[in-house]
Amino acid sequence: MAKVLLINPSKWRRGITPIWIASHSALLKSKGHQVKLFNATFYEEWSIDEISINTSNDQYKPSKYSEYITLNKGDILHDMQHLIDEYQPDIIFWSAVSSHIHGEGEYVNIQYGYELIQQLNTKALKITGGLQPTAKPKEMLKIFPKVNYFIGGESEFVLTEIADIYNDIDKISKVRGITFLDNDIAISNPKQQIINDLNTIPSYDYSVFEDQVFFRPYNGKVDRAVDYELSRGCIYACSYCVETIIQEYYGFTEVNKGVLKNVKGYLRNKSASRVFSELKELNEKYGISLIRCQDTNFLTIDKKMLVELAILVDDSNLDIKLYIETRPEGINSFSLKQLKKLKVDAVGMGIEVSDEDFREGSLNRFASQIKIINAFKSLREEGIKRTAYNIIGLPDETENMIMESIKFNRLIDPDNITVAFYSPYIGTPEQEKSLDMNYFDDYEYHVDSSLRSHSKSSLVDKETLEFYKKYFIYFVKNGFDDMKLLKKKEGIQY
Fold it and tell me: To pair with 362 at 20 to 30 A between CA atoms, which of 85, 393, 397, 492?
């Protein structure tokens, strides 16, 4: 039996229950291992007040969220060392990727976790997984030499296998899916197999989280919420998306017009009965009212399973609401019927850029304008909230194109809007192309999973891009009448 310490080094000061923590903890405990969590989220000296930042920028509706949390004023390194001295873990594990998307691209935790653990006195094995180790494991070894093992792909069973044999280095060296140093030589073992049946992972362990983590601001209110997943995989292969990294790792690479041709075995979902029982437990045991489904594309879930689950939820007295993410192509009369039965409160969908040809050519996204318009209209008519995701600063994007994207958001009239700088994820086709073309000037693997800087090839200068990111939502709501005044205020030439 191993003692495992999970670390959540997220700097974003808000309620979040990363799926990787809940899933890894559940499987480890089911095999008899001990698990504890160190959560850095609410340390005052460490965390960033994301809510205040985004509220001031109109990305979040104001709420009384601060009344629901208590900040830890202690020294984060001191507290971690104290826990390690007391617990004496055999393994320390953290994921390279958080379960939520920040406005600058998906913020990874690998660097932050490393910043913490490398300063600690411990003989524990240091292991991490996630997108960076999956895409660039040998590069990660050079950057983070004190990490013993990097896990590629879905890491639940690999970590558990290591925990089973944690005191036998020779056996660990033969585990599939890991990359490590052997006499200063980088070794990447054969890739692990994909988890074919998600039902083989026990119900996620949310008991590992402190209670205040469940409070989350949502549309101006504060709900008790968790992150959850019904499925894994996506049929689409957008050139900048993390999904392409996982598809490549497991060999699902045949693509036609942005769509995977060989999806069998990659799209997986839990059973309807399993999901319903878990939702019921979250609602009744933890008082959860908001379920944030982290499925890459909710509406690619098996239709039979979706119907069965919708019936179960609709016939129940569950007091829940779901937030899901999907694509406009999935919104139709059939899916709308299921979403209503499932008590879906809001749907997030990517627009990215409004220029259809540009979107297809740059991002490998083939949703037409009319499909996007109709999807947002249909959801509105059903009383389901809509969030539109946008990207600015793409190579060869003009200022006029950004303004057209703003106009398009006005047309589809979403309830919420997010705006991110162009930031293709590490190891994606779009990032590789960007690197080859020298589009970026501050690229560092260890800073982020993505290139969060501004493209040097962009036809819009950095200051103007920052201006549009700041005022994007304002212009959607109010039009461009104040453009000249606001540019003058920000020191931008009109």
Answer: 492
